[in-house]
């Protein structure tokens, strides 16, 4: 590991390394060893002020918003190539930051360079302007960049989720202040360096890691025009409230408690191991994880046995070991949270089929065994609240209508899945799920061309796709006199 990537003494502001306003340092603790493996300065509101001032000047007076969209796209295309070359460095840092297994680097880098590449192409083809004519009336409709964007990202996929916000914001002509979380403050600096080397002008992208107080300072800063946030629903509610006080633009990608529906004709022996593997990806620390597995009652016992056997066989251990599939949870508090939900579930009558405790062969690190819970009722907290850990609930249903009702009986609506021997039947059920992304008979990770986001308390707005670009644009209408119609191309 390049120690320069793990020990930083400055923030990235205005295209250069900027000394912090505080001499305090924050230690980055490895979730697997519980040892300090890196350091960053402790950010203050003054550091946010400096970053916002740089982004504000770059937007108000700099070249970036005034470039032709295709010119911005050329820079994003160069950034995509550099990020692909540096994917290994990003993934390596996240192994120590958040305990993401080295065996699964794509979970941290697979949707970074491709997202920049997609928005590089879209910037050149997107209809930023159009002329409309209605009888004697005519108008020029332009899509303008929203301004300075505060991008607040979580610890479970910091560079990926920073890319999902930064790439479309840059394609739109915005400038950005990224606030990575204190648990994973280091890997996003690699993104900033790649963008600088690709030719993004000073001040257009700034990176200042920090905690909740620094985040609130960014949210309420009068120099910020929009907040793009990924994180918990509780934090999202707070941010939405603060933005509402200023009528500030906001997009929110929040929590989930997604359901995977196995219809009565699904091949349980094949499907259950697949959906368990999907649900336990990154130790279940995924907002779109399908943690409720709904199974037809006639196949319930079979599915429960298959789920338990699958979870028990998944290798859990040191994330630096290429054989490891499930690593530690990000922090001691997160392990305590997960253990609390497991204990509460058993008190409410749920049964631990496998797992439920700490692995005895790992004396250090914040590990929880892959856990399958049976006899779960959808009214239990373990089935209604986001756990963010390796815990899956298996719930029976009697018919398709009940399966849809249980799946939709949630305050969340981020993702879902349907499995059936008949894909048309699965599609009919998928259309009934109140969720922003639904897979049929396969894992369906997001890809750049389709929007991602949730219904209900899973968020507001969408990332990726054309919708992701539109969220960083403000439509403007300009009335055209007849003399300008020919010039405007009407």
From TrEMBL:
It catalyses: an aldehyde + NAD(+) + H2O = a carboxylate + NADH + 2 H(+). GO terms for molecular function: aldehyde dehydrogenase (NAD+) activity. Pfam families: Aldedh. The keyword Lipid metabolism does not apply. The keyword Oxidoreductase applies. It is an enzyme of class 1 (oxidoreductase). Belongs to the aldehyde dehydrogenase family. SUPFAM superfamilies: ALDH-like. Transmembrane segments: none annotated. Keywords: Oxidoreductase. It comes from Frankia nepalensis. This is aldehyde dehydrogenase (NAD(+)). It comes from the Bacteria. Residues 17-477 form the Aldehyde dehydrogenase domain. Its EC number is 1.2.1.3. The active site is at residue 253.
């Amino acid at each position: 590991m390049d120690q320069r990537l793990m020990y930083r003494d400055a923030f990235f502001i205005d295209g250069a390394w900027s000394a912090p306003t505080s001499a305090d340092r924050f230690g980055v603790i490895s979730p697997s060893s519980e040892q300090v493996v890196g350091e960053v300065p402790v950010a203050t509101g003054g550091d946010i002020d400096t970053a916002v001032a740089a982004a504000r000047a770059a937007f108000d007076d700099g070249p970036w918003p005034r470039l032709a969209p295709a010119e911005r796209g050329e820079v994003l295309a160069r950034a995509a190539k550099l990020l692909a070359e540096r994917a290994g460095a990003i993934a390596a840092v996240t192994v120590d930051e958040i305990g993401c297994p080295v065996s699964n680097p794509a979970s941290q880098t697979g949707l970074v360079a491709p997202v920049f590449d997609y928005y590089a192409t879209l910037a050149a083809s997107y209809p930023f302007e159009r002329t409309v004519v209605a009888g004697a009336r005519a108008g020029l409709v332009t899509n303008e960049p929203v301004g300075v964007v505060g991008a607040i990202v979580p610890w479970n996929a910091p560079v990926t989720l920073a890319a999902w916000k930064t790439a479309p914001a840059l394609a739109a002509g915005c400038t950005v202040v990224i606030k990575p979380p204190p648990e994973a403050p280091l890997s996003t600096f690699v993104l900033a360096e790649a963008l600088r080397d690709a030719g993004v002008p000073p001040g257009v992208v700034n990176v200042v890691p920090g905690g909740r107080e620094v985040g609130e300072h960014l949210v309420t800063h009068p120099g910020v025009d929009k907040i793009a946030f990924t994180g918990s629903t509780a934090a999202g509610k707070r941010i939405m409230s603060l933005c509402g006080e200023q009528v500030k633009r906001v997009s929110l990608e929040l929590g989930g408690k997604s359901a995977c529906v196995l219809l009565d004709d699904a091949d349980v022996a094949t499907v259950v191991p697949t959906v368990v593997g999907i649900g336990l990806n990154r130790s279940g620390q995924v907002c779109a994880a399908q943690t409720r597995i709904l199974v037809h009652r006639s196949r319930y016992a079979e599915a429960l046995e298959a789920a338990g056997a699958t979870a028990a066989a998944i290798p859990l251990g040191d994330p630096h070991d290429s054989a490891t599939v499930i690593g530690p949870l990000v922090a001691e508090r997160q392990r305590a949270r997960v253990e609390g939900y497991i204990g509460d579930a058993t008190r409410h009558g749920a049964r631990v089929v496998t797992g439920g405790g700490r692995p005895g062969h790992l004396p250090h690190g914040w590990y929880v065994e892959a856990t399958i819970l049976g006899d779960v009722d959808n009214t239990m907290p373990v089935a209604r609240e986001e756990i963010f850990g390796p815990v899956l609930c298996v719930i029976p249903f009697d018919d398709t209508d009940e399966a849809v009702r249980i799946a939709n009986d949630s305050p969340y609506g981020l993702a879902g899945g349907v499995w059936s021997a008949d894909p048309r039947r699965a599609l009919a059920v998928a259309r009934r799920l109140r969720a922003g992304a639904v897979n049929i008979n396969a894992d369906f990770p997001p890809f750049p061309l389709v929007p991602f986001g949730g219904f209900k308390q899973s968020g507001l707005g969408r990332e990726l796709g054309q919708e992701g670009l539109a969220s960083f644009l403000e439509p403007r209408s300009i009335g055209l006199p007849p003399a300008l119609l020919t010039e405007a191309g009407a």
